[in-house]
Amino acid sequence: MLETIVPKGEHDAVMVVLGEQRGQVGRILQRDKNKCRAMVQLDRYEEKLFTLDYDSICYYVGASDH
C-alpha cells in the first residue's frame, strides 16, 4: 500500500501513481484544494495539462531526468 503525499511547494515534482499516465513525472502548476485536485504538466507531454486527483499523484524526490 502506498500513501501519497502531495508536495506543499509551488512547482514541486510529482509522480503519477494511478491511471493512464502512471509512472510519469511532472510538476504541479495549480491546485484546487476544495476538490483535492491538481493541474499537472508532465515532462513527457509538455504541450498538455492534466487535472489529477491528489490520490493519483505523489511527491517525487528521484532524479530529475526520469
Automatic annotation (TrEMBL):
InterPro entries: GPKOW_KOW2, Rib_uL2_dom2, Spp2-like. The keyword Nucleus applies. Coiled coil: none annotated. Its main location: nucleus. It is found in: Nucleus. It holds the Pfam family GPKOW_C. Keywords: mRNA processing, mRNA splicing, Nucleus. The keyword Nucleus applies. RNA-binding protein involved in pre-mRNA splicing. PANTHER family: G PATCH AND KOW-CONTAINING (PTHR15818), G-PATCH DOMAIN AND KOW MOTIFS-CONTAINING PROTEIN (PTHR15818:SF2). Belongs to the MOS2 family. This is G-patch domain and KOW motifs-containing protein.
